[in-house]
Specification:
Layout: H1 7-20, H2 32-71, H3 76-85, H4 92-101, H5 103-113
Helix pairs in contact: 1-2, 2-4, 4-5
Amino acid sequence: MPRSVNSVASKARRKKVLKLAKGNFGARKNVWTVAKNTVEKGLQYAYRDRKTKKRNFRALWIQRINAAAREHGMSYSVFMGAIHKSNVDINRKVLADLAMNNPEAFEAILKAIK
């Protein structure tokens, strides 16, 4: 009985990985073994950095809120404490957006919690 190798599936699998490796430099884009390693590592980085992106954005929002609050003579921690005490239910993303793009609204929130 002849050996069965299922070259259709093997070729499809390789083609899929080489398509993901498109845009890399040198052998990383067209040599199967090198491209496979590159794609695997790239997917690991992508998974890790989806988590890191959330952390970075939260840090950015906090910096923006802190800067806007300090313009009105209040630190970030005092501002957030006052927001929670007064039961104003606005998340950091929206607060940072208001601080950047609509300072009047941010100031109104600040006056409401004082």
